[in-house]
Write a structure and sequence with these properties.
Length: 300
Amino acid sequence: MALFGKKKPATEGHKSGLFQKRPEASKDLTHLRESLESRPPVRGPLLQREQQSNYPAEHREQPHYAPTHTEQPRSAVSQQEYLAERVSNLAAKGLSQPEIVKMLKTQGYNEFDIEKSITHSIKSGVESPEFPVKERSVKPREKGEPLYPQEIERHGLRLPEAELKRRIPQSQPPVRPSLPGGFGRPAPGVDKREVEALIEEVVAEKWEGVENRLAEIEEIVKRFESRIASLETRVNQIRLEETNKDKEISSKIDTYKESMSDLSSKMEGMETVMKNSLSALLETTRSLSDVVESLKKRER
């Protein structure tokens, strides 16, 4: 608990510059910083207030008490919305994304839920860019970057003057104007690649829905085309059948015509034969009648 208590006065070892004679001082400080970053999250409300005292006054967050047995448990959707609202509020105060993740982890939230809430806030900020642009008050420190004097004092460490001069940067980089938690309309100086990546992600999601709808429409068009092709095939078959029937009827009619012609020619031949045979028959009948008459006369 020495990190959160009062600063101890410098000992004689610090005054005499014992750290200057140790070449491994920077390695020890790096190891100490990594051990501080990898500490397990503090969950008690008193320790939370003590831990939050390391943050600047504008970045301090009220302690989050675990729900007692009298509180009603939230559903998954309401808890996710509540967590997203907390992320937006912390981002509006100027906290960076690593600071928000670290603070919510110390309050007992799951890392997956925190990342999901941050992604949801980023998407909502990109889709509705009406939030005002706000500057970050504290620039996040990259991993492996040496501690600055303010951070050393905040962690309760003491370094000799030579070590402090070596760790003080010559020129502080200008603080770039940031968005509220990295969301909303991009301001000058903001990394355009991050904004473009977010925009591409949103456009990809929207375009995926459009592609699915287009695929459904293409499937419907293919079904209609197959039906039209089957109808065309059926119509062609019907036309072919009708054509064959017409040909058969025409051939039968021609056959009937030929038969009628043969029959008429035969009838004409029979008529001619009958005429010729009737004349001979009539003559024979007349001669017979004459003979009969002559015989009758002789008998008398």
